[in-house]
Design brief:
Elements lengths: L1 E6 L2 E9 L5 E9 L2 H19 L10 H13 L5 H17 L10 H12 L4 H20 L22 H4 L3 H13 L5 H12 L3 H5 L10 E4 L2 E3 L5 E3 L8 E4 L2 H14 L19 H15 L6 H14 L4 H8 L4 H7 L1 H22 L1
Antiparallel strand pairs: 1-2, 2-3, 4-7, 5-6
Length: 367
């Protein structure tokens, strides 16, 4: 199977195949002016190999690991963030360990579930889910291309041995949430991290979205989320997590006032025009914000919570107050409403019990 990639200003083909002893072979050539030219040249090489050496280039007979790697190189590499590429590399590493000698066609549901079960013995369920998600994207592509007709990832049970954080560690109740906001708002002298915490709490932003916020995206009653700050790899602006993460979020009057107070304190123009800018012309670190948040929680005698915990609490409170889950999903920038339903299942379960009691009361009033 040939993969066509761009190298600088030129195009290259790389053909992967297996000889009669089952040994992996590759041949490649670079220097083509267009993808079409590279594809034509690759087709000619494949035809010669098939005609004179009897090589079968049927994609379903490729090792799944090789097919997955070709899929990543052609369709996913460099298309989003470096973190996204990292997750694909980890998924490919998983496949190299558990599906080493399996062809695309030989990967069955039973073999896939066995691998998931084995991996889950030493990893948290959330980690197993991530591997599954990235492998599934490759499987979906193979099905769409007509290479396979059955989905080996269909109805797979995700398992995990390491205990993930309890839900109570991911969010706090509304009373404690309110105490944190009131405490920080009451401080006569606020640090950048305090303003950062206030915005996270009242908008439900991700840390990277808040860190990447620039003053041109702060409007009278809303903020525009169209980029993030990549503090792990490039230390510069990056794309949002997904298409749905590009959004406009309304802000209340107090939040607007806090942002304007911060702008007056900064009183200077920075290279990146960042809202939460440090002396190094970069955003305040996640660690620094979490440290300030932990300090506030300790002062108030509240269970410690992280930046992400504030986001989780923000969404939970909106649900408890009866806001439409579709709106909440858009506000939080989730890929789809299914993601929101999965994350806030604990809240929805409680609301369902409350609704059941309401139904009982309504029926009793009618009798």
């Amino acid at each position: 199977m040939a993969s066509i990639t761009k190298r600088g200003k030129k195009w290259q083909y790389r053909i992967t195949y297996y000889d009669f002893e089952g040994k992996k072979k590759q041949t490649s050539k670079c220097g083509f002016s267009s993808r079409k030219e590279a594809k034509i040249a690759a087709d000619e090489v494949e035809l010669r190999l098939h005609k004179y050496k009897g090589i079968d280039f049927s994609a379903e007979k490729m090792l799944f690991v090789d097919y997955f790697n070709e899929f990543f190189e052609t369709f996913k590499k460099g298309k989003r963030t470096e973190a996204n590429d990292k997750h694909y590399h980890l998924a490919i590493k998983f496949c190299k360990k558990y599906f080493t000698n399996l062809t695309v066609q030989e990967l069955t549901r039973e073999k896939y579930q066995t691998a998931i079960n084995e991996f889950g013995k030493t990893h948290a369920k959330t980690t197993v889910q991530k591997r599954h998600t990235y492998i599934k994207s490759c499987i979906k592509h193979a099905i769409n291309e007509g290479i396979i007709f059955k989905d080996p990832t269909y109805m797979i049970e995700i398992t995990g041995a390491k205990a993930a954080k309890q839900e109570t560690q991911k969010y706090i109740n509304e009373t404690d949430f309110k105490r944190i906001l009131q405490y920080i708002n009451s401080l006569e002298e606020k640090s950048i991290s305090h303003y950062f915490i206030l915005l996270l709490a009242t908008t439900g932003l991700r840390y990277s979205e808040c860190a990447g916020l620039t003053w041109d995206c702060v409007k009278k009653d809303s903020i525009i989320i169209n980029k993030t700050w990549d503090s792990q790899y490039t230390n510069n602006f990056s794309n949002t997590k997904n298409y749905s993460s590009n959004r406009i979020i309304t802000i209340d009057r107090q939040t607007r006032t806090n942002l304007m107070s911060l702008k007056l304190l900064q009183n200077n123009t920075t290279k990146h025009n960042l809202v939460f800018c440090t002396d190094g012309d970069t955003p305040i670190s996640n660690n620094a914000v979490n440290k300030s948040l932990k300090s506030a929680c300790k002062h108030l005698g509240i269970q410690p919570i992280t930046c992400h915990g504030l986001r989780h609490t923000h969404g939970s409170i909106l649900l408890y107050h009866g806001l439409n889950i579709k709106y909440i999903s858009r506000r939080l920038g989730h890929t789809d409403i299914v993601t929101t339903l999965q994350i806030y299942s604990h809240v929805l379960d409680e609301l369902e019990q409350m609704e059941s009691r309401k139904v009982d009361s309504i029926m009793e009033s009618l009798l």
